[in-house]
Amino acid sequence: MNIVILDYKTLGEDLDLSGANRYGTVIKYPVTKQENARERIKDADIVIVNKVKMNEESLKDASHLKLICETATGYDNIDIEYCKRAGIAVANTPAYSTSCVAQITASMACSLINHLHEYRRFVHSGDYQNSISANMLEPVYHEMEGMTWGIIGFGNIGRGVAKIASAFGCKILVNKRNPVDDFECVDLEYLLKNSDIISIHCPLTDKTRGMIGKEQLAMMKKNAIIINVARGAVWDEEAVAQAVLDGTIGGVGCDVFSYEPIDENHPFIKILDRDNVLLTPHMAWGSFESRMRCFNTVLSNIEAYLNRKEQNRIV
To answer: Range of 125's domain?
Structure first.
């Protein structure tokens, strides 16, 4: 059994991947450029992948390929319809990052609401040491208790965020495809107009792609913050950047981008210097514990497949 790991650096170089050896001969690549994927997987029986696109172009010579294991919950890098036609099984890794993504979401909200960046800079720059006052209370910050937190997408992560937000004393609004009974479910427009904090946790689909654009951002309260830890393409990045520049929203937290890493042409380059912008390098999912759960789930998915059982199967 030939197992190819195409981009193990996405799991972190500190992770022990030796568990895959018990299922066959393992070839590991730290990263794989898209143009090299076809050659690297042509003799593979199992491919473990995170970011590399698994489409007809990369898969057409992989005549031995039986299983693709996605080291993520989302699998928009895999052409599912082609895999169905080619008889290639696909399994993902759900729910492994719930705790850490919820944790980072809450951390972003707390940092932006409390203006921690500005207060930290006041001390670290030496301005506090040279000040005549024992404290500094500008910019003004507000207690989260009593605020409304709108959650777009309400899977495991959305529910995790709701638990934390409730502990802060926030009112919760939920926008999801199928309403639930235990939280107030509203349409997107109502959520945007009435929330002080908005966080996005939905998968990227044809329906969610670009769902937050100029029109939707204009619905938000002027001091509201919006956080995206889902997928970069669920909002219009140019419109988000412009809303920050125009001062029509209170702040932005973002851990995901329409292409990664971003370059000098990305719209968010224009807002890097803004105190009300908090950008992180797609790390919200990646606590050590989360990455271990992810890879152990991949191994479990391989075990299940070899034993003719379906586990976390997309195809």
So the answer is: 98-279
d(CA 26, CA 22): 9
Which residue out of 115, 231, 266, 291 is catalytically annotated? 231
Residue 138 a catalytic site member = no
> Is 312 part of any domain?
no
Is residue 79 located within the same domain as residue 150?
no
Q: What is the CATH number of the domain that holds 172?
A: 3.40.50.720
What one-character DSSP code corresponds to residue 203?
P
Tell me if the pTM is above 0.85: yes
Catalytic residue, from 38, 117, 209, 282: name it: 282
Answer yes or no: are the C-beta atoms of 250 and 223 closer than 8 Å. Answer: yes
SS3 state of residue 68: strand
pLDDT digits (tens, 9 = 90+) for 69-78: 999 988 989 9
Instruction: Report how far residue 197's alpha carbon sits from residue 10's, in angstroms, rounded to the nearest whole number.
Output: 30
Catalytic annotation present for 260:
yes
The residues, any chain, with a CB within 8 Å of residue 227's CB and separated by 6 or more, are: 105, 108, 109, 112, 197, 198, 199, 200, 252, 253, 254
pLDDT tens by residue, 132-142: 999 999 999 99
Structurally, the chain folds into a number of domains equal to 2
Q: Are residues 300 and 229 in the same domain?
A: no
Both structure tokens of 148: 């409304």
Predicted pLDDT of residue 271: 98
